[in-house]
Amino acid sequence: MSEEIRITRRGIIIDSKEDRAVTRQFVEVELKEALATFRSQFTLLVQVLAALLAANVAYLGYALQLEKAAIIAIGAVFPLAVLVVFFRAKKLMSPILFSAVNLEELIFDPGIGLVSNFLVHIHGQSYVDQLLSLSNEKDIEKRRRILKKLPIPMSSRGLVRTACVLAAVGQIALSLVLWLYFKWPLV
Known about the structure:
The chain is mostly helical. It has one domain. It is about 75% helix and about 0% strand. The chain is built from seven helices and two strands. The chain has helices spanning about 15-65, 70-75, 75-105, 115-125, 125-135, 140-150, 160-180, and strands at about 5, 15. A two-stranded antiparallel ribbon has the order 1-2. A hairpin with a 6-residue loop joins strand 1 and strand 2. The radius of gyration is 24 Å and the shape is elongated. It starts with a strand and ends in a 7-residue tail after the last helix. Residues about 1-10 have low confidence and may be disordered.
């Protein structure tokens, strides 16, 4: 006996209970993959940022040991590299969050999913609503532009940018102070 079952609020209709079970399994697998991909990208981001931070500290220590002011100034590249990596990762993670939130909506009632709750806690309900509304956007290019502008979780508004710029400017200022007032050679 065939019965229609509405499994989402978006109007997807499944013809039978068997089809519904298969569709649910598929969506669950896709959600697991989206979460695993996001987790691995976030882990990789943390590892790359930690490596850049360690490299900056080692480079700064080397420059201080040699007492060369220009080497300290060149080390300002590391905080700027952190900035580039961080914002590049944002572009890569937003589509995965988009997929995860939309897949959760297919399985759970609104507001119950792990990803949705996490994003609501970090960025607020409007962030999740914006991700969900993008699923209705038919223009892929417009969707891509909007996704690129969304913040990634754990990034507060401008904190990373401010910290990286201050670190880079601080290293350049330190090299100038050491060169001008302590007469360290540039090279």
